[in-house]
Design a protein that fits this description.
By secondary structure, this protein is of the alpha+beta class. It has one domain. Helices cover about 30% and strands about 20% of the residues. It has 1 helix and 3 strands. It has a 3-stranded mixed β-sheet, covered by helices on one side. The longest helix has 15 residues.
Length: about 50
C-alpha cells in the first residue's frame, strides 16, 4: 500500500483544483518541479 502524508495529499488536492480551473502552471516549493499533470498542468518549484 502506498502511504501519502497529510501535506502530500493537500498538495495533490491543490493540483487538482488548479487543473480543473484551467491553470497552466502551479508554483509549489513542496512538489518536484517539471512534473506534468494530465499534460495540461506543469508543476514549477521556484527554488530549484
Amino acid at each position: 500500500m502506498n502511504k501519502c502524508g497529510f501535506i502530500d495529499s493537500n498538495l495533490w488536492i491543490y493540483a487538482a483544483i488548479a487543473d480543473g480551473s484551467s491553470c497552466a502552471i502551479l508554483y509549489s516549493e513542496d512538489m518536484q518541479g517539471g512534473q506534468r499533470i494530465e499534460n495540461r498542468l506543469v508543476i514549477c518549484n521556484p527554488f530549484s
